[in-house]
Design a protein that fits this description.
The structure holds two protein chains of two kinds. Chain A is mainly α. Chain A has helices at 2-25, 32-57, 66-89, 93-117. The chains are: A mainly alpha, B mainly alpha. Chain A binds chain B through residues 27, 67-68, 71, 75, 82-83, 86, 88-95, 97-98, 101-102, 105, 108, and chain B through 3-4, 6-7, 17-18, 21-22, 24-25, 59-61, 63-64, 66-68, 70-71, 74, 78, 82, 86, 162.
């Protein structure tokens, strides 16, 4: 369950990064559609946070430590909203660049999450 | 640069713009409001002539740099706090170094957000300090790995963090220098 969500969040984050990178290249700020995209990615990351916590309370343990696992889950859920907030403040192409960076950071966090959870066991 | 010169909202660096919603150019575009206070006092240029102002050091490309410094303040800070609490005995030097890195990141972050000419100069000095830290710690981790019993943010020139710890201070210095050049040219 976590594994599938990790892949889904990673792909969504990379798509968001590419989309906003395209806006950056075209010298455009983030538009409503970009924020809907950010909302989708954030919902996925929040679902991952909930599922992760449920699995931990259900008796499973993260290989890399439960505290670190939850911290990374929280960080993953906050990465894109934080980037979106900054892009609201920066209504230029650089606001789009910030969301691109946020998407890439989220993808990296997902790789770390996969390692911390312990790769194989679901 | 055209895309950074299009801001017409007349805001100055350091007026607490992090707390304000982004104004649309259409709403806030009152060139007549450009009073002398709208310029930084060190600016030295004739103020209030309605010309397009350059972005402050925390705006435009600077805002991306601010975001990355915010990210690394949180990353290095939370990492060192956790490690200092949970496993201090394992590698105190490495964890204290991460804490120092977090403080440097936080300080540069505040400097960039506050803005102004003196903040710009302090920011350059801190970025240079940060760059020196990355280079020294990165070299030490390669030459004498026994010194560190665990990774820090700056180990191996920040390889764990996609080398962003190495690139960020260089980008910061270049940006702050350019922002300064724009000041004197204005």
């Amino acid at each position: 369950m976590i594994g599938g969500l990790t892949v889904a969040v990673s792909v969504a984050a990379l798509l968001l990064a590419a989309w906003c990178g395209y806006a950056t290249a075209r010298d455009q700020s983030t538009k409503d559609w970009h924020f809907i995209g950010m909302a989708v990615v954030t919902v996925l990351a929040l679902a991952q946070l909930v599922v992760g916590v449920v699995e931990l309370t259900g008796g499973k343990a993260a290989d890399g430590g439960d505290v670190i696992f939850v911290a990374y889950l929280a960080g993953a859920a906050l990465a894109v909203p934080a980037a979106g907030f900054m892009s609201l403040l920066e209504r230029t192409r650089w606001g789009s660049a910030i969301v691109t960076a946020g998407g890439l950071v989220l993808a990296v966090l997902e790789i770390r999450l996969f390692d911390i959870w312990g790769g194989g066991h679901g | 640069m055209a895309e950074t010169g299009t801001r017409e909202d007349g805001r100055t660096p350091g007026d607490g713009d992090l707390l304000r919603p982004a104004p649309d150019g259409a709403v806030a575009g009152h060139p007549a409001d450009a009073s002398p206070q709208d310029r930084s006092p060190q600016d030295g240029s004739p103020a209030g002539d309605g010309e397009r102002r350059r972005p402050g050091i925390g705006e435009g490309p600077g805002r991306l740099i601010v975001s990355l410094y915010g990210l690394f303040t949180v990353a290095a800070g939370s990492r060192s706090i956790y490690q200092l609490i949970a496993q201090y005995d394992r590698a105190p030097l490495a964890y204290l170094l991460s804490a120092v890195a977090a403080v440097v990141y936080a300080f540069i972050l505040v400097t960039l957000v506050r803005g102004g000419e003196s903040a710009r100069r302090i920011g350059i000095a801190c970025c240079a300090l940060e760059l020196a830290g990355v280079l020294v710690v990165g070299t030490l981790t390669i030459v004498t790995p026994s010194l560190f019993h665990d990774q820090t943010v700056w180990s191996y020139y920040g390889a764990d963090y996609l080398f962003i710890p190495l690139v960020l201070p260089i980008t910061g210095i270049l940006w702050l220098r350019r922002a300064g050049a724009a000041t004197t040219a204005a």
